[in-house]
């Protein structure tokens, strides 16, 4: 019988609606990050760097891009005969079929997969955080404290604590209480959504709670374990960890990569971040080009200027164009003499010549002010922007737009121009 000490279950089914148009056609963990990577590369790389060689990736929402990116796991050295990476979508069953309705329900529906490996421990991860973490060290802590459940926590500023699930611990880091987004937090240890369960404890908790609607770890499983008197411990993590669940935090995390001394370092030899990338030719920089403090992907052709930006592979930037504080993803083409300021341009977008993005005074977005904000211009995948238009701040454009979509050649700040079914 196969026996694995610890297997990982990676929750990657999220729609990520707070990323707006970036997740209109793909799951959040498949979104590009830091040029050549995708968000899911980070937890997957953590697994292989930590010696965890069996990973179940639970997908649901628009999984195509994610599935083809992961493939059989070769880039992460997860193409194993026993173990390796398995993509686990919801599937048809003889009695009742259902989508994954909550984080723990997704794990429950894959009980059979976990049983195959007869693990001592199960590591639960989410697919939408940027961080480096040695899960082996967390497992040592779990074993050393004799815990049934260990929850990774991170100290956050007290004034932000009410946004998180908060753990209250004693001096030995044993969890004595926890509060979900408390109005008056009693501690600043926020749950990172990373758990190690002893298999017996997880199995029992999932089976006993299987009929709860929207079965969730924070709402149901953890409280159940605590009420049953199981030992819960908090493992404190002190490295870089970023939830890139909103457009603003996604943009900020990309910009932090280009700091002179980045807090999150993509270049460490001993903790590599692996990804599945196409084979691309080298970058080409034209005679009049200028680049400052930026990440430039392979196969990119730059004839203009790029400052403080993250440029993915295979991007083309025309002559006389200036790009500032922006993210331009794989395969997008920007024409000549454009001015791109604080934009997030998704994959395979075509921007004409003499286009200005990030013009005018800031105004609140008319459709989703909570998403399209902080002065950003967001352009959805495969969109087309015609020559000579000016686009304001806090705007979103999706689909093939033409000159007639821009009265007087402009799209004012705060406007949403959706011709690509981004709001489906």
How far is it from the N-terminal to the C-terminal residue, by CA?
46 Å
* Average pLDDT score: 88
Low confidence ranges: 92-97
Helix fraction, binned, reads 10-25%
Sheet-strand content, in percent, reads 25-35%
Q: Could you explain how this protein is built, in words?
A:
With 424 residues, the chain is α/β, with parallel strands linked by helices. It contains 8 helices and 33 strands. Strands 1, 4, 5, 6, 8, 9, 10, 11 and 12 form a 9-stranded mixed beta sheet that branches. A 7-stranded parallel beta sheet has the order 15-18-21-24-27-30-32, with no helix packed on it. The protein has a 7-stranded parallel beta sheet with strand order 16-19-22-25-28-31-33. It is elongated and about 65 Å long. The model is unreliable at 92-97 (pLDDT under 50).
Q: Descriptors for this entry?
A:
nine-stranded mixed sheet, seven-stranded parallel sheet, 8 helices, 17% helix, elongated, single chain, alpha/beta, 33 strands, 424 residues
